[in-house]
Design goal:
heterodimer; A: 2 domains; 5-stranded mixed beta sheet; 9 helices; B: mainly alpha; Cytochrome C Oxidase, Chain A; two-stranded antiparallel ribbon; 2 strands; about 65% helix; globular; translocase (chain A); transport (chain A); copper (chain A)
Chain lengths: ~350, ~625
């Protein structure tokens, strides 16, 4: 019944619009404004451009200021300060260009709207102008690129020797986090070793893997470099830690990495934002299937001393599940068992 | 009533001329470039509606995540579950198909296909394309491609769902997402036909522009529209085969067990045997087309805008040569910037630096174009036809979206912004909306030439303002969401604390998007109604200079009855000092306008006289043969 009423309503509305349209057309014909080069609508359109500019400019300014704290995420890493500065410098430069060009673009239509008595200026070219607006953008862009390039080289350069290693492996639809243990060296892995008890495919015939362990959250120390070793098990994923200004694809068959230094512990950030619930998060930013939108992982940043303590408390894979080393050759198995007893 | 009768009259008169055509050869398997152009246009409009409708569906999900969508069951069936929620996999299919359809079917075929076909012969003074048959094949390959893509929408496992870039392994493995089964197979077949169509069209456009220009139509006298179509075709010809290669290797990986893109994969409880492939290889191949594709979509729109802005400013386009040089620059540079889509793909950071430099260089010709448009408006005598409004709108989008490209092209800043809504905002403005506005400007401007009738200007104004404001309301807020780090292709953002805000803004965007979509029906009505009932057009309604306006109201096969007119001047002699009218058509010899000639043109008059005398000889020879 409602559907029927709605349909009738729409029909009525359409027929009214139709009538208005026909009347309007006839009025135009009677007035003969369709014969004119520029009818009264020309003035209206010219005015609307200016009106649009004013209204939209005001809305943009108001919203940009009002929402600043919402869209500007707090920064949790050293390089994030640099990339954000670049971002805002670029915003300032492009913002000026945006405003000037749009003032011209919307004001010219108003100023130079059609007038029968006037003739447009015949101004086909001017080499000096062309040179100016080729060279000026080139110089400005060069400055932006060079500063961007310096930041990029620093960020993507080799990680410091002492960086704490954390492996993050993406799979449908979660992240698996593996730590190298006390030796700070991850054990080898092979995707063919993956099964229900060994989701990362760790190769336990590599001694470095004996002290490897996994955790439900990523814990890292503040002020010390950390390197994420990133890989994927099935399809592409991408590690995105928005507060750390960190993003790197996880590619099956091609390990990637990203190193950074956190600047504020989770506690400090909570105090600063006055938000006791705050957590650093990792999300996936490469479409990976049904659960793409739900690959959440928490990063907890702690003081270095606390980190050391936490690290010592963790139990390696093989301690939690000795069956992982059950099939190893005798010699290795003995080593593994020593390691298990040490770590218990 | 009078208009209706005269319409009827002209239609029959028209048929008398075309008596050798039956319905099938005239409207379906036509080899006439004008009809093929219209076929591309109508098909493009059909696809734009589908693509737009898909975006309405996923905007409903994003704006109103809690909404009960059961009312969509009649069309979406099982994709809406019992609680009225949209299936997340189908959500991905929606964004994938929206992207594919809009980029390829609407803005490549609908824009390039329509206007390259329709305008190249008319504006360069040719009877038809170099190969009418190939041209017809080009349309029908596109049609088949569309049919296959359309069928894939109705598969039980859904259409392709790995994003419009269809990165493997997601697109290669059915286990990863159901859309990568039959849906992806059909996507690949459809794209193969599409590539064939683009190549057939492109070869034709290039050949026609090079070989079939009328007497006097040197490259330095070509309208900028033709320059843009020509360069677009060159880009397409060089880049589409690479997409074909990428697709072919993907077909092999999917169906024949090769490992071009696949390596070390454990999925669905088993380790696959593929090893040694590189998923990043696909990205290189894809973006080698994918980035030039942006310019394939954009250049024709810029060409159309140049023409429309010059005509309606009653002023020569400022910096004709600079415009051509920037388009050439864009054409060349478009092939060496592709990896800026891959800064965080695991690409060697050094390569990233190289591509950052190259990418920001391409901003320079783009900036030059914008400044030239602005200077063309300056001290003009502006007539706001709907086409003019859409062209000004295009310039606005081109600026807004282009400037955000400077952020994204900077690899250090891109780390944070990559694959967020900032990117979505950027390309929808600079490539999507700008090109769409170019398409609209073209339709409003050349409608009188296509159908011999005028579209209603007032409806055009309403359409423009609703769309222009709508587009900004949809895409401008996305910048804020993007800066806040909201990732693309998310079904919902509530799983994360950092993105659990802006539900109001997303709702606002969705409402704006739906209203903007609805506003397009004003255009649809105007388009189809005017086709049959619109006011009859005069021969040169915009008082424009280019050759197409010298043809009869309904140009038949061959475009011009009798000889093709010769060209004596560039296409932008608007408001020339000394001239009586504020425009001088390209067919008016310099010798006929001594009052307005510039000093260097006065010297050309002599040369011109030779051409005219040659022509007269031809005419006399023809007449004596006939008698």
């Amino acid at each position: 019944m409602y559907g029927f009423l709605i349909a009738i309503g729409i029909l009525l509305l359409l027929s009214i619009v139709w009538m208005v349209y026909r009347i309007q057309t006839l009025v135009t014909v009677v007035k003969g404004s369709d014969k004119k080069i520029a009818s009264g609508s020309n003035k209206v359109n010219a005015f609307l451009f200016v009106a649009f500019m004013v209204v939209f400019g005001a809305l943009m300014t108001w919203y940009s200021i009002k929402e600043f704290d919402n869209y500007q995420l707090p920064i949790g890493s050293e390089h994030g300060v640099i990339t954000d500065r670049l971002f805002w410098i670029t915003m300032a430069v492009t913002g000026v260009v945006f405003i000037i060009t749009h003032i011209l673009l919307f004001w010219f239509p108003y100023k130079y709207q059609y007038d029968e008595k006037r003739k447009a200026a015949f101004f086909p070219h001017n080499n000096r102008l062309e040179v100016i607006w080729t060279v000026v953008p080139a110089v400005v862009l060069a400055l932006l690129v060079i500063s961007g390039w310096k930041a990029w080289s620093d960020i993507t350069g080799p990680a410091p020797e002492n960086a704490h290693v954390v492996e993050i492996m993406g799979y449908q639809f979660a992240w698996e986090v593996r730590y190298p243990g006390m030796d700070n060296v991850l054990g080898e892995y092979d995707y063919r070793l993956i099964n229900a008890t060994n989701v990362s495919g760790v190769d336990f015939s590599d001694k470095n893997s004996f002290d490897d362990f996994n955790t439900p959250i990523v814990v890292i120390p503040k002020g010390e470099p950390v390197i994420f070793k990133i890989r994927a098990r099935d399809v592409l994923h991408s590690v995105f830690a928005p507060h750390m200004r960190l993003k790197m694809d996880a590619v099956p068959g091609m390990p990637t990495r990203f190193w950074f230094t956190a600047t504020k512990t989770t506690e400090e950030m909570r105090a600063e934002l006055n938000d006791p619930e705050f957590e650093y998060e990792i999300a996936c930013t490469e479409v990976c299937g049904r659960g793409h939108f739900s690959m959440r992982k928490v990063i907890t940043v702690v003081e270095p001393a606390e980190y050391k303590k936490w690290l010592a408390e963790q139990k390696p894979y093989i301690v939690n599940n000795p069956s992982l080393v059950a099939d190893l050759p005798t010699e290795l198995k003995e080593l593994a068992e020593i390691s298990i007893s040490e770590n218990k | 009533m009078a208009t209706a009768q005269s319409a009827l009259h002209s239609a029959t008169a028209h048929d008398d001329h075309e008596h050798h055509d039956n319905f099938i050869t005239k409207y379906i398997f036509s080899t006439d470039h004008k009809m093929i152009g219209k076929q591309f246009l109508v098909t493009g409009i059909f696809w734009a509606l589908i693509g737009g409708f898909l975006s309405v569906l996923f905007r409903l999900q994003l704006g109103f995540p809690e909404m009960d969508m059961s009312f969509l069951k009649p069309i979406l069936g099982g994709w809406i579950d019992d609680t009225g929620a949209l299936n997340p996999e189908f959500y991905l299919a929606l964004v994938t198909m929206h992207g594919t359809i809009m980029v390829f079917f609407v803005l490549t075929a609908g824009l390039s296909g329509t206007f390259s076909n329709f305008l190249i012969p008319l504006q360069i003074g040719a009877r038809d394309m170099a190969s009418g048959f190939m041209n017809m094949l080009s349309y029908w390959f596109f049609f088949i491609s569309g049919v296959i893509m359309f069928i894939s929408l109705f598969l039980e496992t859904g259409p392709a769902a790995g994003g419009w870039v269809v990165y493997p392994p997601l697109s290669a493995l059915e286990q990863a997402i159901p859309g990568s089964g039959m849906g992806m197979t059909l996507w690949l077949i459809a794209m193969t036909f599409f590539i064939a169509s683009s190549l057939l069209g492109g070869i034709n456009y290039i050949t026609t522009v090079i070989n079939l220009r009328t007497k006097g139509m040197s490259f330095s006298k070509l309208p900028l529209t033709i320059w843009s179509f020509f360069l677009t075709a060159v880009i397409g010809l060089l880049s589409f085969p690479v997409l074909f290669a990428a697709a072919l290797l993907l077909v092999f990986d999917r169906s024949f067990g090769t490992s071009f893109y696949l390596s070390d994969i454990y999925i669905g409880g088993e380790a696959l045997s593929n090893t040694g492939g590189s998923a990043v290889l696909y990205q290189h191949l894809f973006w080698f087309l994918g980035h030039p594709e942006v310019y394939i979509v954009l250049l024709p729109a810029l060409g159309i805008t140049s023409e429309v802005i010059a005509t309606n400013s009653r002023k020569p386009i400022f910096g004709y040569k600079a415009m051509i040089i920037s388009m050439l620059g864009i054409t060349i540079l478009s092939f060496v910037v592709w990896a800026h889509h891959m800064f965080v793909s695991g690409l060697n950071p050094f390569l990233g630096s190289i591509f950052m430099f190259l990418t920001l260089i391409i901003a320079i010709p783009s900036a030059v174009k914008v400044f030239n448009y602005l200077t063309t408006l300056w001290r003009g005598n502006l007539i706001f036809t709907p086409a003019m409004l859409f062209s000004i709108g295009l310039v606005s989008f081109f600026i807004s979206g282009g400037l955000t490209g400077i952020f994204l092209g900077n690899s250090a800043i891109d780390i944070q912004l990559h694959d967020t809504y900032f990117v979505v905002a950027h390309f929808h403005l600079v490539m999507g909306s700008a090109s769409f506005f170019g398409l609209m400007a073209g339709v409003y401007h050349w409608f009188p030439k296509m159908f011999g009738r005028m579209m209603d200007a007032k409806l055009g104004y309403i359409h423009f303002w609703l769309t222009f404001i709508g587009v900004y309301l949809v895409f401008f807020p996305m910048h804020y969401i993007g800066i806040a780090g909201f990732p693309r292709r998310y079904y919902t953002w509530t799983n994360f604390e950092f993105s659990s805000m802006y539900t109001d803004l997303n709702m606002f965007i969705s409402i704006a998007a739906i209203l903007t979509f609805v506003a397009q029906f004003i255009f649809l009505f105007n388009f189809f109604y005017s086709m049959y009932r619109g006011r009859k057009a005069s021969l040169n309604p915009w008082r424009s200079n280019t050759l197409e306006w010298t043809t009869p109201l309904h140009p038949g096969h061959g475009n011009w009855p009798g000889e093709i007119p010769s060209v004596y001047r560039w296409p932008y002699d608007y408001s020339k000092p000394g001239a009586k009218e504020d425009f001088i058509m390209q067919t008016v010899p310099l010798s006929a306008t001594p009052e307005s000639n510039l000093p260097h043109e006065q010297e050309l008059v002599k040369l011109e006289k030779e051409i005219i005398s040659e022509e007269e000889e031809v005419l006399i020879a023809n007449e004596s043969r006939e008698s």
